[in-house]
Amino acid sequence: MKAVQLYYPPEWAHCYGCGYLNAQGLRIETHWHPERGESETRFTPKPYHTAIPGFVYGGLLASLVDCHSTATAAAAKAQAEGLSLEAHPLRFVTASLKVDYLKPTPLGPELLLVGRAREVKGKKVVVETELFAEGVLTVRGEAVLVQIGEGFGRSGSAPGGG
Amino acid sequence: MKAVQLYYPPEWAHCYGCGYLNAQGLRIETHWHPERGESETRFTPKPYHTAIPGFVYGGLLASLVDCHSTATAAAAKAQAEGLSLEAHPLRFVTASLKVDYLKPTPLGPELLLVGRAREVKGKKVVVETELFAEGVLTVRGEAVLVQIGEGFGRSGSAPGGG
């Protein structure tokens, strides 16, 4: 299954978190499961992505939630509208990001993020995320995403930061 | 003036965001102004820290708010207790992080984060942050920080992720 981010056209594919054209980036990839209405992102942090030794850096966890949420928004919106991302690439940016660190996330194992769109309304999507390390829920995320249009990045006038 | 993070003892100085012992990290440094009760963090993103070309990646902005907030919490708590960080290094981790992306943040200029502790109560501190690019407020952050003790990182039982 092709990751949502791989549908982004080249002008929107430079994101440090998830752009396939960013050589120094994290290359986060998110997969959408239409039958469940859920997204999944898997990512194994590098040893240097540490907070206190032994635990994953909170800023990296926020970055994972961020890019996972923008991709989830694109997939959920496409499904809600009956569009294929192949023919209609959609790109969302983040208006607001909330991350609750429920427990320290161990550094080492692959992390799994599971996302669902709680609201799809016009150009706005709200995504809820749960992040698991070895089956244990350690982080809960909520993001408000806004769809951008083709002109974004030229005028610099649109909202969002993710 | 010595940055707050440079008071952290070596076992707490590996953070990818702000640890002076993390060779691959961002080395975020935060300065505390006791007379104003405010912290300041200055950071210039790298060209690859992009979201949509021309704008700073939201995950990096969340990371800046995160480490800036943990340092602000340490300094504010030390001031509230009348302690010197030199003699009493304090270390906070993040329990919750909220970032509102009010406008796209331009990639290129140095960014300035200004923080204040809204609440200092026991081991908990709430920090509010404003992030400016060329004098324009683009991001607003709120973080809940929890002070950790000397045993943290050995037992792995304490809360927090930042």
UniProtKB/TrEMBL annotation, chains A, B:
EC annotation from Swiss-Prot or TrEMBL: 3.1.2.2
Domain Thioesterase: 54-135
InterPro entries named among the record's database cross-references: HotDog_dom_sf, THEM4/THEM5_acyl-CoA_thioest, Thioestr_dom
Family as reported in the entry's similarity comment: Belongs to the THEM4/THEM5 thioesterase family.
Membrane topology classification: Peripheral membrane protein
Molecular functions per Gene Ontology: hydrolase activity
EC class of the enzyme, as a word: hydrolase
CDD domains assigned: PaaI_thioesterase
Compartment annotation: Cell projection, Ruffle membrane; Cytoplasm; Membrane
Name of this protein: Acyl-coenzyme A thioesterase THEM4
GO cellular component terms, semicolon-separated: cytoplasm; membrane
Protein origin, superkingdom: Bacteria
Catalytic activity field: decanoyl-CoA + H2O = decanoate + CoA + H(+); hexadecanoyl-CoA + H2O = hexadecanoate + CoA + H(+); (9Z)-octadecenoyl-CoA + H2O = (9Z)-octadecenoate + CoA + H(+); (5Z,8Z,11Z,14Z)-eicosatetraenoyl-CoA + H2O = (5Z,8Z,11Z,14Z)-eicosatetraenoate + CoA + H(+)
Keyword annotations of the record: Apoptosis, Cell membrane, Cell projection, Cytoplasm, Fatty acid metabolism, Hydrolase, Lipid metabolism, Membrane, Transit peptide
Pfam families named among the record's database cross-references: 4HBT
BP term (GO), one: fatty acid metabolic process
UniProt xrefs under Gene3D superfamilies: Hotdog Thioesterase
Origin species: Thermus oshimai JL-2
